[in-house]
Amino acid sequence: KRIVIFASGSGSNAENIISFFREKPEVAVVAVLTNKSSAKVLERCDRLGVPAFYFNKPAFKDSDAVVNILQGLNADLIVLAGFLWKIPSNLINAFPNKIINIHPALLPKYGGKGMYGERVHQAIKENKETETGITIHYVNENYDEGAIIFQAKTTVEPSDDAEVIAQKVHQLEYEHFPKVIEKVLS
Ligand code: GRF
């Protein structure tokens, strides 16, 4: 089975997923795609020996260039791991029920356009939530709205700042995301 990861930022989840499947004979991350030429995920791909492709907005939104790359790669599953653009319908239609995303909160709360990274954890803190977590879901045309596949929770203490909450959520991501991907592929 062939996984393609989309990432816009640091790529710690991408690295975790690549490493997890390195030991599994049937599944491999065949490429990482990014919309940011400066994304740290590209350094991780160099170090890990995983092909990486950069695309700009017109290529992504107004052409089939990215769809063609994915079909050329024979992708069985597209995994969004810190990818910040909405997925255009040509990509959704080319890979029905084959695009999944991880969101660092318990959707449907704290989701939608603009709710990403530290902003999510800041909002959790400001609203004095006592728990937060991760949501892994299928991707449709709208931000963070597809069918939910998996959720995991962690407690939030009053003394936790956004950084501490982010660390707790990252731990859940690293623990669960690869295993959920494996299950989706089986
Ligand atoms: C993660 O918190 C993920 O839930 C969200 O974006 C962040 C990506 O972090 N979608 P990284 O780039 O994998 O380190």
Automatic annotation (TrEMBL):
Any one of the GO BP annotations: 'de novo' IMP biosynthetic process
Pathway: Purine metabolism; IMP biosynthesis via de novo pathway; N(2)-formyl-N(1)-(5-phospho-D-ribosyl)glycinamide from N(1)-(5-phospho-D-ribosyl)glycinamide (10-formyl THF route): step 1/1
Coiled coil segments of this chain: none
InterPro entries linked to this entry: Formyl_transf_N, Formyl_transf_N_sf, GART, GART_AS
PANTHER family: PHOSPHORIBOSYLGLYCINAMIDE FORMYLTRANSFERASE
Family stated for the protein in its record: Belongs to the GART family.
Protein name: phosphoribosylglycinamide formyltransferase 1
Origin species: Allomuricauda ruestringensis (strain DSM 13258 / CIP 107369 / LMG 19739 / B1)
